[in-house]
Amino acid sequence: MWKGKYMTKLYLSRNTRNLRQRRGLTLIELAEKARVSQSYLSKLENGKIKEPGVRAVLKIAEAFDTSIEHLCFGKITPW
Fold first, then answer.
1. Rounded CA separation 11/76 (Å)
2. Nearest to 30, CA basis, from 53, 59, 54
3. Which residues, 6 or more positions from 68, have their beta carbon under 8 angstroms from its beta carbon?
4. CA gap 41, 38 in Å, rounded
5. pLDDT at residue 24 tops 80
6. Angle (CA) 57 60 61, round 5°
7. If pLDDT is split at 50, 70 and 90, which confidence band does 32 have?
8. What is the pLDDT of residue 8?
9. Do the Cβ atoms of 36 and 45 come closer than 8 Å?
10. DSSP 3-state helix, strand, coil percentages of the chain (rounded to 5)?
11. Do 58 and 65 contact (CB within 8 A), yes or no?
12. Which of 41, 79, 39 is nearest to 59 (CA)?
């Protein structure tokens, strides 16, 4: 079970950073768009948040116009 949580966190961290960079957004811009703090996003992208909050992840997914499932589990591919 713990391994599953680790993998989800790993995908979430990588996918958030990759998608943000592909969309040409800075941490500040994504934070404003998602209505979360820049500090939270930085920690999330660097894997320093043990258990990301569902509300925050939902806000980030909405800012990217994607689903939580895609952000947490899906492979982000170039457009």
1. 9
2. 59
3. 54, 57, 58, 61
4. 5
5. yes
6. 85
7. very high
8. 72
9. no
10. 65, 0, 35
11. no
12. 41
Report the predicted TM-score, pTM, of the whole model to 2 decimal places. Answer: 0.83
Token pair 């509300």: residue: 55
Distance of CA 54 to the CA centre of its chain: 11
Q: Which amino acid is at 58?
A: L
The values of phi and psi at residue 24, to 5°, are 75, 30
**Which residue's structure tokens are 């994504």?**
30
Q: Which residue has the tokens 């790993």?
A: 10
With 0-12 CB in 10 A as exposed, 13-18 as middle and 19+ as buried, what is 58? middle
Tokens of 71: 């952000």
Tokens read off for 53: 């909050």
